[in-house]
Write a structure and sequence with these properties.
Shape of chain B: globular
Helix content of chain B: 40-55%
Radius of gyration of chain A: 21 Å
Oligomer: heterodimer
CATH superfamily of chain A: MetI-like
Structural class of chain B: alpha/beta
Number of strands of chain A: 0
Structural class of chain A: mainly alpha
Number of strands of chain B: 10
Helix content of chain A: over 70%
CATH topology of chain A: MetI-like fold
Order of helices and strands of chain B: HEEEHEEHEHHHEHEHEEHH
Strand order of the largest sheet of chain B: 6-7-8-3-9-10
Number of domains of chain A: 1
Distance between the termini of chain B: 58 Å
């Protein structure tokens, strides 16, 4: 058996199927980040000082450090705290925290973009915080949020490639493995990049369309 | 005996004892600052049940701030505000109760754009008062009829003219069955041809005996419906009187200048 095998159709399909792990990691991080992000956004617009400070601190830490360091810190940090080394768990936790911070900041902006008169009118009608948020503020903020949220999802999918470094076998890691066996880096990573593109490009188009639709809706 | 007790306990839960007083709004020594800016200076104002008050004055004089303090959209630095026996400055549930009993109409309408006219009108009664959907819709249609736009119930605010939107805003406030209506320059954002339809709605409301505090530049409206007209400038109430006194024989110099400018 030769040490180096050629890059053939089998190798191609192995890379393509590895995309499922990229999609799975992105989906978990996006879902977890959605919940965490909503919490962060709500804390960030709170009237009380401490929740606001905590949320701001959380966002600043994740905005001000490289994603790779966040991944390392969670990966090695969990090990120090006595958890067995587990790339899956570390990657999902790190990306969920990362997505929570960024979605939290994006959605804070969307909540604040709802005209203040809306909150005042709801308050004047006697609606309290929960009902104001649920029926008045968040429905309007979510319309504004759709396009930038999809935009962030694209960033997140591309960002999951860093999980390869802690040994999480997703698209990029699978590419590295295949490359070690075939030594055709251009073909291998060209294929990997093409798969990312196929995942991300439709989302980018969708985000741009929604942005256009939204700006049309608001200028009317 | 039981009735007395019931009244006493009702007063106790309200936190004050003057629920039966004729004054529905009392402001005593109210002061408010925005940073260094003294927005309200020692405001003393008492409003009787059923009274119609018009507040006028140059922009930045504190008139909007004053009525926004009544439902605590603005908080005050010191002084006391009691609305229908509920002391706002005492805190607790009083603020919520007062907001439920006070309707407000804004310059920019502030209808909820993602809801139909009917939904705008039924949300607060359902969520705040716990009224059933059917009953809330019945009430909403009644008030939409009163402001003469029952046929617009299923439309969205963006599909209506400014005057229609403001009438929906009035109906929406009335659906909560408020004891007091606050109007914050309700016609200032309207095209001239739509001012009348909104004023007519307000005049109807005044005729029905609603307690109203209106910040407005519509002096015709003030003459026609106001029991008292108030002039504010630089955060102070400078003159207060019946429309006849106020317009016929103004005493304050700044009021004379103001009346000269707007007439």
């Amino acid at each position: 058996m030769p040490l180096i095998r050629p890059f053939g159709i089998n190798e191609f399909w192995i890379i393509v199927f590895a995309a499922q792990w990229t999609i799975a990691l992105s989906a978990i991080a996006f879902a977890g980040g959605g919940i965490g992000g909503l919490l962060i956004a709500l804390l960030r617009v709170s009237d009380a000082k401490w929740p606001r400070l905590v949320a701001t601190g959380f966002i600043r830490v994740f905005q001000g450090t490289p994603l790779l360091m966040q991944l390392f810190l969670v990966f090695f940090g969990m090990n120090i705290m006595g958890f067995a080394i587990n790339p899956w768990l570390a990657a999902t936790v790190a990306f969920t925290l990362h997505a929570s911070a960024f979605l939290g900041e994006i959605w804070r902006g969307c909540i604040e973009a709802v005209p203040p008169g809306q909150r005042e009118a709801a308050t004047a009608l006697g609606l309290r915080y929960y009902n104001r948020m649920r029926y008045i503020i968040l429905p309007q903020a979510s319309k504004i949020a759709v396009a930038p949220t999809v935009g962030f999802l694209v960033q997140l999918i591309k960002g999951t490639s860093l999980a390869a470094i802690i040994g999480f076998t997703e698209l990029t890691r699978q590419g590295q493995i295949i490359n070690n066996a075939t030594f055709s880096p251009f073909l291998v990573f060209g294929t990997v990049a093409a798969v990312y593109f196929v995942l991300c490009w439709p989302l980018s188009v969708l985000a741009r369309r929604m942005e256009i639709r939204f700006s049309r809706a608001t200028t009317r | 005996m039981t009735e007395v007790n019931a009244n006493a306990s009702a007063a106790a839960t309200r936190g004050t004892s003057d629920a039966a007083s004729p004054w529905v709004v009392r402001m005593e020594g109210v002061n408010k600052w925005y940073g260094e800016f003294h927005a309200l200076k020692n405001i003393e104002l008492s409003v009787k049940r059923g009274e119609r008050i018009v507040i006028c004055g140059p922009s930045g004089s504190g008139k909007s701030t004053l009525i926004r303090c009544i439902n605590q959209l603005e908080t005050i630095k010191n002084g006391r505000i009691v609305v229908d026996g509920h002391d706002l400055t005492a805190g607790g549930r009083n603020v919520d109760i007062v907001r439920q009993e006070t309707g407000m109409v804004f310059q920019q309408f502030n209808l909820f754009p993602h809801m139909t006219v009917l939904e705008n009108c039924t949300l607060a009664p359902m969520k705040v008062r716990g009224v059933s959907k059917a009953e809330a819709e019945k009430t909403a249609r009644k008030f939409l009829e009163r402001v003469r736009i029952p046929e617009q119930a299923e439309k969205y605010p963006a599909q209506l003219s400014g005057g229609q939107q403001q009438r929906v805003a009035i109906a929406r406030a009335l659906c909560m069955n408020p004891k007091i209506m606050l109007f914050d320059e309700p016609t200032s954002a309207l095209d001239p041809e739509m001012v009348k339809e909104v004023l007519d709605t307000m005049i109807d409301l005044a005729k029905e005996g609603m307690t109203m505090l209106c910040v407005t530049h519509e002096m015709g409206f003030a003459r026609q419906v106001a029991d008292r007209v108030i002039f504010m400038d630089r955060g102070e109430i400078l003159e207060m009187g019946t429309p006849d006194e106020f317009f016929g024989n103004p005493k304050n110099e700044r009021l004379k200048i103001f009346l000269g400018q707007i007439s």
